[in-house]
Amino acid sequence: MIQRSEIKELTARLKEPRKFIQVIVGPRQVGKTTMVTQAMEQLNIPHLFFSADNIYASDEWLAEKWQSARLMVQSRQPEQLILVIDEVQKIPNWSERVKKEWDLDTFNRMPIKLVLLGSSRLMIMNGLTESLAGRFELIRMTHWTYSEMHEAFGWDLDTYIYYGGYPGAAEMIADEDRWRAYVENAILEASINKDVLQTSNIYKPALLRQLFTMCCAYSGEELSFRKMLGNLQEAGNATTLANYLQLLAEANLVSGLQKYARDKARKYSSTPKLQVFDNALMNVYNQTTFGSVRTDAALWGRQVESAVGSYLLSQAEKHRMQVYYWRENNAEVDFILQRGLSVVAIEVKSNNARTNAGLHLFSSKYKPLQAFVVGNEGMPLADFLQTDLRLLFR
């Protein structure tokens, strides 16, 4: 079993003196619980692990588990103890209760360190900003990368581009129908039902579901909200679609990339470029096969561009970057990566077609820190998908 890179960050923080609550956030089925379990095995620190999943977890339940940790400290008198609560967002008013218990331990100098995990990023972030400001640090986990899927399952690049980074589904790809059923039912339905519909006021759930499947099908393409409405069966308006798309992005499912511009108003009013957070989402709802897509140059080109976009989107989330696209008349650049005031322009090329003039035009207009091609006649795709994006800004 491989260890994800976030384990080093978590173990290092838990070795420090008690100061912050450690909060692990990320998509479903990417190994958050496994990573924390591995970290507990490495640390020579006593710990208690409780999960609020599949039980009726009330605020009294949380208080009882916390009291168990305090009794363990009082009886064994360790220098420190780690309390881990998984699926904490399922506890009503969890953030207020955590704040109360954490502050009580701080006042009484109780050496209990706290790790919180949650699969609903929306509920976690809302609770953190409302009640726990200044008391926590985030560790953001992403879908598995190409290098991780290669190490764990021996996947080659083409396999990763099509099937994406859900490790739980990796052993099912020999039966594509089974793979699709697992990803849809075990991952996507749970994400939409529990991480989106139960966390926000969704007045048109059928519209949100149709929007999600459309975004998956059109990943890598620009699609105006007007065109989206024309292809959706449920009635709605552009504002509703924009709000729903933002909720899907918060759940690490799909995003609508804005067009890069120095004027913020122009960014927000631009036509979104749809982008999945993982390429598995692009393929789970279609009826094609890996073999048929791989031998179709046009379809495979879309797969490659979407895979690059997925990597940029997930890593930007982790490293506090922003991802855009750029277009001016017929000139375009597939992705613009921004960190602070610096930008990097990236064009994806999966065949022998001539490189779009947009990269040169963008460079002359905006003076990016770097501008380069990924794929044919540029940086090898496999190398890019294993690159620490922070290195692009040095």
Which key phrases capture this entry?
394 residues; alpha/beta; six-stranded mixed β-sheet; five-stranded parallel β-sheet; 17 helices; globular
Summarize the structure.
By secondary structure, the protein is α/β, with parallel strands linked by helices. The chain has helices at about 5-15, 30-40, 60-75, 95-105, 120-130, 145-155, 155-165, 175-195, 205-215, 225-230, 240-250, 265-270, 280-285, 290-295, 295-320, 360-365, 380-385; strands at about 20-25, 45-50, 80-85, 110-115, 135-140, 255-260, 275, 320-330, 330-340, 340-350, 370-375.
Tell me the total number of β-strands.
Answer: 11
Helix content: 40-55%
Distance between the termini: 33 Å
Mean pLDDT across the residues is 90
What class do helices, strands and sheet pairing give? alpha/beta
Profile the largest sheet. Answer: 6 strands, mixed
How would you characterize this protein structure?
By secondary structure, the chain is α/β, with parallel strands linked by helices. The chain is globular. A hairpin with a 2-residue loop joins strand 9 and strand 10. Strands 7-6-8-9-10-11 form a 6-stranded mixed beta sheet, with helices on both faces. A 5-stranded parallel beta sheet has the order 2-3-4-1-5, with helices on both faces. Helix 3 runs parallel beside helix 4. The protein contains 17 helices and 11 strands.
